[in-house]
Each structure stands twice: as structure tokens, then as C-alpha cells.
Amino acid sequence: YQMPDMPADAEEGILKGMYRVRPSQHQRRRKRAHLFGSGAILNEAIKAQLILEEEYGIAADVWSVTSYKQLHEDGARVERWNLLHADEPPRQAYVAQVLEGATGAFVMASDYVKALPDSIARWFPSPPVCLGTDGFGRSESRPALRSYFGVDAATIAWAALAGLSRQ
Predict the structure, then answer these.
(1) Residues near 98 by beta carbon (within 8 Å), at least 6 away in sequence
(2) 3-class SS string, 6-74
(3) C-beta of residue 130 within 8 angstroms of C-beta of residue 65
């Protein structure tokens, strides 16, 4: 799959596990979604961004998750440090630092089980919708398989709309 070019300031985020790969072109819009994709599903998140912005007028930032494992380990390390150093100012997980002040709907999509994105959900500003490929599915094509599991662009966009409607 053709992946987007690396943004100029993304190296730290790539190494730490997550970076914003495509900020919304509509920064002034009130309604906002944050779409997180990894691997091949990143392209689906980018397509979902276009659906949200062009069809619904919702600003959407796309984030690339390069390592759920790295992000989870960082968060667990920070929680342990905070537990053992209760008399010092608490530290923040990288996910919480990067998303500090972010509002709107958060949708994480993976072509692996939902438990993977869910492993970092507790460090988000508000509970994200986690999409993944739990179970078994057979299809005649990759797009049909992604639709079956609900990790395609249409489902990612729908999850963002549902998240915004709940707010």
C-alpha cells in the first residue's frame, strides 16, 4: 500500500508510537473527529477523513499508530512511576500528552483485534470507539473483508459521527 509521506516533524511520534499524519484542512470547524489507523487501515482512516470533511462538514485529523505496544508500555511505565512517586507531580503517558486538550470523537481502527487499540484507550481525553477484526470472516476481496469487520472508511466515518452524536 502506498503510505503518505512522513510529515517534517513526525520522527519523534513515529518512534514513540503515534503521530498526526494528516491534520484537517478545516481547523475552524466546531465539530471534530480524530481518526487513528495503523498499517493498511491507515488508508481507510484517510478515506474516512474525506467522507467526514466533504460530506458532513466535520474537521477530522488522521493519526498513524506505529506501535500500540510501545504506547501501552509507555502508559504502563508512567502509571507505575506515578504509583511509586505519589509525593511528586504525576507524569503523563505519551498518548495523553499528544492528545491533551483535544476534543471531539476519537476512533481507533486496526486490522487486528479490538483489544489492541483498546489497550491504550484509558489515556485518551474521552473514551474512543475501538474497531478491529475480531473473529473469523471470509470475503472475495479486501474491501469486502474490511466492510465485514467494520474497519473500512465508511464504518470509521460512521463511528466518528456516532461518537459526536453522543456528545
Answers:
(1) 13, 18, 19, 20
(2) CCCCCHHHHHHCEEEEECCCCCCCCCEEEEEECCCHHHHHHHHHHHHHHHHCCEEEEEEECCHHHHHHH
(3) no
Phi-psi region of 17 (alpha: psi -120 to 50; beta: other; left: phi over 0): left
55: its cell numbers: 460530506
Q: Is residue 159 a contact partner of residue 131, using CB atoms and an 8 Å limit?
A: yes
Chain mean pLDDT for the chain: 92
103/107 Cα distance (integer angstroms): 12
From the list 64, 52, 71, the residue with the least C-alpha distance to 116 is: 71
- Which residues, including other chains, have CB under 8 Å from residue 73's CB and lie 6 or more apart? none
pLDDT of residue 137: 67
Query: Is residue 23 packed enough to be buried (19+ CB in 10 Å), middle (13-18) or exposed (0-12)?
Result: middle
d(C-alpha 160, C-alpha 148), whole Å: 18
In whole angstroms, give the CA distance from residue 143 to residue 151: 9
**Cβ–Cβ contacts within 10 Å for residue 128, how many?**
22
Answer yes or no: is pLDDT of 84 > 80. Answer: yes
Residue 101 — left, alpha, or beta (φ > 0 → left; ψ -120 to 50 → alpha)?
left
Residue that is written with C-alpha cell 499524519 in the block: 21
